Amino acid sequence: MLSLYMSFFFFFFSIMLFNLGILFLLKKFIYLMEWNLFSLNSVDFYYIFLFDWMSMVFMSFVLLISSMVMLYSYDYMKEDLFFNRFIYLVFLFVFSMLLMILSPNLLSILLGWDGLGLISYCLVAYYQNMKSYNASMLTVLMNRLGDSGLMMSLGMLYYMGSWNLMLYSKVDCLIILMFILAAFTKSAQIPFSSWLPAAMAAPTPVSSLVHSSTLVTAGVYLLIRYNHMLMSLSYVSKYMFILSVLTMFMSGLGANWENDLKKIIALSTLSQLGLMMSILFLGFCNLAFFHLLTHAMFKALLFMCAGVIIHSMKNFQDIRYMGGMVKLMPYTMVCFNISNMALMGLPFLAGFYSKDLILEEVMFMGEGLYIFLLFFMSVGLTVSYSLRLFFYSLFSEIKMISTFSLSDHNFCMNMSMIIMVFMSIVSGKFLLFYLSFNIDFIILPYYLKSMVLFFMMLGSVMGAMIFYFKFSVSLKLIYLKDFFNKMWFLFNIFYYLIYLGMTLSMKYTILNDKIWNESILFKNFLEKMFFFIRKIDFFYINSFKLLLFIYFYLLFFMFFFV
């Protein structure tokens, strides 16, 4: 019952915060609250809360999705022995995200930011097997790399006089680069993309929450908040834009080769994060925020439907076993394909309104032919793997040995999914109408306007070909297949870097602690000291004998030589 109470609590506050966000937008209200934690050596440590329309609306979406995840977990996790512990972890995870959203001060941002990283480690390792442990270790190490960037910028801002970033119109280039490093690791952009598919070892409700509106969107939200500083470095933004487009392209290729259902959805999240980052580095932070909100709705629904499918298939995640499910699980398949179509950007669904505007702005900016083609090929790949899932769920034959377990008669799961289906349909138009983003009037020639449709049709044909035709991969192309399927070997590269770092640290420990400190400094020093002590002790004990020896030696010398 704890999850039901939490669900009601989150849902109530979600509605309240969204209404407050609309009111703050219309009245242009901004409230800033400062809480002086303590003072140390003439430095005041403030925790600052910023209440404006953006933080209110984003918090309402986070709480709405968290509410549906709590309701969904009541059925999905009911057989779990540690269900209450799971609910407490999810609550702390959401609370850390809310702290990060409300904080304009870097010191207070770090509290929520570190909370997200720590609790994500606990949630990914929740099932306590070797796969979960490895995935959680990769996740937390990659995120700690970004945390180090925030900590370094914290130290640099200390010398500028304040940690409140709202006071600065322009900061040092190195601080902005540290912010980008933190955002890239949290939002899994190239070259830090390998942890996102690995985090699929977490329970499906956690994946629904993490990949829609919390952990992976924290980096995007951080750059949206401080986009005015980011745009002061135009040459850096161009390179970051290229990396974001490469992330889209890499994840789109990988999703078309992948057969694991949760990993396909994780790679689609990576692709959409690349889309948000790319439009953000072009300077359209409102469009990035718009797509962040609409994407959260249909991606949470997509993971919820995937959880029902995996639950019914007795933990099979291979999409090649998904045949004939439309006859046995019609409600789940309808919800699944609505979210899939929203992901493709089908007209009048949530993803269409934000995605179409982003594509037109990219065409309008004119960033070069090769980047232009790579960007639109990535959009076509999104359509391709979405249609591949569509075909496997609707037109494939039944391949399960037993279909007895295939059912979608779970009230709490169905209730959470129907609310998310409603939001996946109406949230795009609703947000566009009520939030009234400042969108330029875009004038494009006909051939550019039809470019989006052309690449979507190309992606549709590619998805149908992958489904209907079984391509045999020759031995010459097997390495190319592995290259695409394993995210350009980012897993291997980062596992090798982790191994190299651990090996070097072990060798440094042996060299520093056991050779220098122990053998050369302390052990050698003690040996020399004991040697001199023994010499001194020898002279002290035998001092009278030595004096007699010296006396007789001098007498002998004087008698014979003087």
Can you offer a commentary on this structure?
By secondary structure, the chain is mainly α. Among the domains are: 279-485, no CATH class; 496-561. It is 75% helix and 3% strand. The chain has 22 helices and 2 strands. The protein has helices at residues 2-27, 53-76, 83-102, 106-124, 130-158, 173-186, 195-198, 204-210, 215-225, 227-230, 234-257, 261-281, 285-312, 325-328, 330-344, 350-365, 369-394, 411-435, 446-468, 478-485, 490-541, 543-561; strands at residues 31-40, 43-51. It has a two-stranded antiparallel sheet with strand order 1-2. Strand 1 and strand 2 form a beta hairpin. Helix 13 packs antiparallel against helix 15 (330-344), helix 13 packs across helix 16 and helix 17 packs across helix 19 (446-468). The radius of gyration is 31 Å and the shape is elongated. The N and C termini lie far apart (112 Å). The relative contact order is 0.08. The mean pLDDT is 80.
